[in-house]
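REQUEST ID: PR-0412
SUBMITTED BY: lab tech R.K.
PRIORITY: routine
TASK: structure prediction, single protein chain
INPUT:
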Amino acid sequence: MSTDKKEKVSTISIFRAIRKIYQFFADRPVKNGTILNRRYKVLQFMGAGSYGLIYLCEDLQTKEPRAVKQLRPSKRRSKKERVQFEHEVTIIKTLNHPQMPVIYDVFSENDSHFYAMSYIEGDNLEEELFLNKKTFTEKESLLVLSQLIHLVAYLHEKNIYHQDLRTSNILIKDYQPFLIDFGLSKKINSLQSKHDPSAVSGLQQQDFYDLGELLLFLLYSPYSFKGKRALPWTEELSLEEETAYLLKRLLGIRDRYPDTYEMAKDVEAAIKAQKD
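STATUS: complete
OUTPUT:
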């Protein structure tokens, strides 16, 4: 590596380190017991995402639990980040689905930006898989995927593309998935769709690929890696032919799905092929 390149890499590393230190101090959660907007009492800090901090709060007016999201303080002075936060609010306000959040309030306080939404009671899929070591059979994995496809289809019908369908953004209750965190979502209007269909296709396929990765995580949940040499999933997992075919199409190994309708049909076929 040339001296110039080494210096450039070193400079980038320094800036990243400074940014992380700044975020560590700037993004400290609001203390439990704090009253936000003279209405929401912070009960518990629930976690952080790329853009925001999430709190479980009590709505002092309705006495109901609410999830309150705060734009990371480290990002509040960036116009781009504030616009992205407002964009997320706009997208969620267009949703009307029992397995997605509802926004009740948007407010700013002490130069910080918040919105209050419905509190969805469920287990975070990432924590269930990696901390609690929960396992899903092949059939259970396909059943979860089947429901997720319906959620994605609902969004795509509204020209909304989630773009962040990760295990951390899915809650599970009685094997029923709930979709959260629309911070990276994109909404395409009819004019954009007409003039740039390839961009729309790219957004669609990203959601489909994410579904494939999610399915792969679920299918791997009972798998033991102890003492085993890493191999491709096609060799490590013993799957029914229909499930392997579905997964290959989702991940782009075979012809990609043109829509959720064809995908849902293949999921149903894979479920029917399962041996109870």
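NOTES: The chain has a mean pLDDT of 88.
REVIEWED BY: pending
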